[in-house]
Amino acid sequence: MESTISLLSEKHFLCSLCEEIFSNPVTTPCGHSFCQMCLRVYWSRNGSDECPLCRRNFSSRPHLSVNRILADVTENYRKTRLAAKSRFFSMDELQDEPKNAGEVEQMIQERLQKVEKLQDSIKLLKNSCLREVQESQRVFSSLLSTLEKSHKLVVAAVEQKQREAEKRVDRLVKELEREIQELKNEHTNSELLNDKERLKKSVSQIPRAMRDWSKVTLETDPCVGYSRQAVVDFMDTVMMESKRLSKAELKKLQKYTVDVTLNPRTAHAYLYISEDRKEVRHTNKQQEVSENPKRFDRVANVMAKEALSYGRHLWEVEVGEKTDWDLGIAKQSVNRKGKFTVCPSNGFWTLSLKNGTQYVANTFPPMSLSLAQKPRKVSVYLAYEEGQVSFFCSETGTHIYTFRDAFTDKLHPIFSPGRPHGAKNAAPLIICTNCCSI
Fold it and tell me: What confidence tens digit (pLDDT) does each residue in 249-296 have?
């Protein structure tokens, strides 16, 4: 058939409207053929239902289906033509071959739609930015107001302490002066009496008890800790606001939820992957698995099959009451054989729990984290272009930690359920199909 086609002139395969090889050819009732899109555009622009070649008017616009025979013959001609051209041109040059009018029109429409979407998106972006500015104004105004009130309370407390001390000192000084005067008077009177009268007076009059002034002191630093306590109280307010904002942030990120499934070909031989590829647990014994370059052979890790190279993504993992686990992302190109350090410079951005209580961000060196509540579910959020990997407690929305870096490689979610330690850590890590509502 190819030899027969090669004998035909190219004009038999050209649309008279775009003068290019037919694309989805249709044939009018008068027997002329055109590209389906070219004919639609022609009728739309001219406002009449006539044949572009013979000008025959149709009483109503005919419903035209693709002429399959002509389409097949045209496709074979196209392939023959490309094969002939490939002897002289590179593939890059072939890709630059001009398209017919129908294809061009379709490309124009697609781009016009994209312009519309981008314009709509920038409106949404502006509204979002405005809301963020307004929220930040409200938050910081409230915090500044709280800070000013805290400072005023500290100043008022210090001044009150000072006034109380001054009053106490005035009272003590007056008491001392009175005793001094009494002592002076008594001493003067005693000197004027003879021995017999002095003895008689000492027996008949009992002197008033004097205060033991050796135990009377004045603390010169009465306000130690006032400023520190005010800062601690303010930080508690900041933390409460931070938790509220973190919860709102995670709620907004729900729309970026993606479906994540484990890739058994990457799993360490000690790991068992469930049939639905949503759960992984450590079996503490080696399983029969095929060796391949993608499989971890020393560290008990498993990667997800999804490769993430752009955009924003959120997934949630149920960790339950486990005492050891690792979660995060890793470069597709990371070393999977032998021993290595899990840290960003080696292509890992992960969070760990060790010994049931020690939360660690695997930076270099590792950073210990203090969590007020032990999460049962952890949300992992990747913003590729922003170079951000964040971890949240799914139940409370509390932000745990954020890595910031520049990503250029494809990234995969990565998981390690930790050794079972008997039955203490035997439960699996479970990838949730839907992120929980907070």
Answer: 999 999 999 999 999 999 999 999 999 999 999 998 898 888 888 999
In the prediction, which pLDDT does 228 show?
92
Q: Residue 428: phi, psi to the nearest 5?
A: -85, 160
Q: Which tokens is 33 given?
A: 């053929």
Contact 6, 15 (CB under 8 A): no
Query: Is residue 83 in a domain?
Result: yes
Given 46, 75, 98, the domain boundary residue is 98
- Residue 17 tokens read as 């409207």
| Distant-in-sequence, close-in-space partners of 10: CB < 8 Å, separation ≥ 6 | 21, 77, 81
- 249: which 2 tokens? 């942030």
Query: What does the pLDDT read at residue 45?
Result: 79
CA-to-CA distance for 335 and 339, rounded, in angstroms? 9
Q: Minimal CA–CA distance to 320: which of 378, 372, 371? A: 378
Q: Which of 344, 421, 353 is nearest to 387 (CA)?
A: 344
Q: Do 352 and 328 contact (CB within 8 A), yes or no? A: no
Query: Residues of the chain whose pLDDT is less than 70?
Result: 1-10, 82-100, 187, 189-209, 435-438
CATH number at residue 70: 3.30.40.10
Does residue 179 sit within a domain?
no
Whole-structure pTM value: 0.64
Domain boundary among the residues 45, 64, 98 is at: 98
- Alpha-carbon gap, residue 200 to 234, rounded angstroms: 70
pLDDT digits 0-9 by tens, 148-169: 999 999 999 999 999 999 999 9
Burial letters for 193-232: b for 16+ Cβ neighbours within 10 Å, e otherwise?
Answer: eeeeeeeeeeeeeeeeeeeeeeeeeeeeeeeeeeeeebee
Q: What range does the domain containing 291 cover? A: 255-431
Instruction: Say which CATH number the domain at 375 has.
Output: 2.60.120.920
CA distance 426 to 95: 56
Per the structure, how many domains does the chain have? 2
How, if at all, do strands 25-27 and 377-383 pair? unpaired
- Is residue 222 domain-resident? no
Is 168 within a domain?
A: no
Task: With CA atoms as reference, report the closest residue to 425 among 352, 284, 324, 351.
Answer: 324
